[in-house]
Task: structure prediction
Amino acid sequence: MKELDPQNITGVVVDQMSLTPDRRLREIVDSLVKHIHNFVRDVRLTPEELSEGLRFLTDVGHTCTDKRQEFILLSEVLGIETLVYAMADRLGEEHGTPTSILGPFYMPDIPTLELGGSIVGERKPELAFYGQVTDARRQPIRNASVEVWQTDEEGLYDVQRPEYSESDLRGRFYTNEAGMYSLQSILPLGYSIPMDGPVGQLVKAQHRHGMRPAHVHYIVSAPGFKSVTTAIYLKDDPYLETDTVFGVTESLVGAVAEQDASSPILGLPALRFDFQLRSDDSNPRSS
Ligand code: MBD
Ligand code: FE
Result:
């Protein structure tokens, strides 16, 4: 038995985990322990601060419900989700539309609508979103699923409303023979991340504004291709450069054209955005 001290404790922990049969699990937890121990030494974490950190994480867990995922939000405001996606997007040879963050308000069960249909319910559509889904060689992909969701005129998602009962400003569309999708909607509003939970408290304590630039979320998928979770951000939004969750990258910024002769929906301003999917086998290392 040796005397444990602030240096040798790390090796003792790693040794005890060294029989982990799953190699990837071993690699991940090993590295995690080493980095966290270094972090604890680096900031000289006190017992009180450890308790406070654990209380914070407990609070993050308690804030999660079936309509809100505070842990996702935490990984986003720390830039972790964007880092993971940025690495995954670089694997393989084929080019695809970059990934952007999912956000805490994704709902898998949404209505499938006719091409060109509206996701705004009783409201008057103001705007068309359309574009083409192609493979890495710009060949159209027909029957690709295009899932879209966005905030309303007040910057809220349907599920954030107390009276929420059914899907609003969400829909799934399938591309036509030419790989085209189109839908009618309204302009999404710039948006604050939920500030009433522990992650919001952290962001406030850091004097960050908590805003996201106006955006529309998409998940585009088709058999034989990797699906892409992404979002389109509106040009000229004041928060493009300082997104609280680091979702914006240059190639995901789109502009609304007041007149667009090639839009399949006439009479409405239009935002064209084309999606490129990488083939499923373009890189066997990622799924
Ligand atoms: C959002 O709308 C969002 O997209 C993300 C990532 C986080 C909080 C709110
Ligand atoms: Fe969002």
Summary: The helical segments are 8-16, 23-43, 47-63, 70-77, 80-90, 198-205.
